[in-house]
Amino acid sequence: MLFEDLKPKVVDILKNESNSVTDRLHQICQLLNKTITYYDWVGFYFKNGDKEELKLRTYVGEETDHTIIPFGKGICGQVAVSNENFVVPDVQAQDNYIACSFTVKSEIVIPLFKNGENIGQIDIDSETPDPFTEKDERFLEFVNQEVAKILE
Ligand code: SME
Fold first, then answer.
1. Which residue lies with its CA nearest to atom 5 of ligand 1?
2. 24 has pLDDT over 80
3. Domain named GAF: which ranges (predicted)?
């Protein structure tokens, strides 16, 4: 499915106020995992209160031990401080990387901004080497912008 076709589905999920915010985020994870073949693990991390760490809010894919990630650690923790997209074509080439599963080959993390502040991120792991393009970045930026609208 094309990213352009997925956008209205993302908007539809997010506007359904009869579901909790976490449920809607989970449905986004399900949608992306189900429709984009190389999105094997999809999750949202958010800043954990006043702490300098990320907390996993919801995800789809293999269970992970990494529900809390300190700022600066791993790909996710680096994005929490850099405020920039991080595309990793080959996770084995990264020194500062937190492995979740040996089947993961690549990863993309896109920061989520609310009122200009980096408050979280969408994290995607892939079992395909080097699958992510600028189209993924633009699409995931769109997802995060839409998600930001429903957050406090
Ligand atoms: N690989 C991430 C850790 C989170 S898992 O991918 C779910 C990282 O290096 O930050």
1. 100
2. yes
3. 23-149
pLDDT at residue 1 tops 90: no
Burial class (CB in 10 A: 0-12, 13-18, 19+), 139: buried
Number of domains the chain is built from: 1
Compute the distance from residue 18 Cα to the ligand 1 centre, in Å.
31
Report the largest interatomic distance among the alpha carbons of the chain, rounded to a whole angstrom.
43
Pocket residues for ligand 1 (CB within 6 Å)? Answer: 41, 43, 64, 66, 69, 74-77, 97-98, 100, 107, 123, 125
The H-or-E segment that residue 113 falls in is: strand 106-114
Alpha carbon of 109 to ligand 1 centroid (Å): 9
Query: What are 97-131's pLDDT values in tens digits?
Result: 999 889 999 999 999 999 999 999 999 999 999 99
Q: Is the pTM of this model over 0.85?
A: yes
Domain carrying residue 60: 3-148
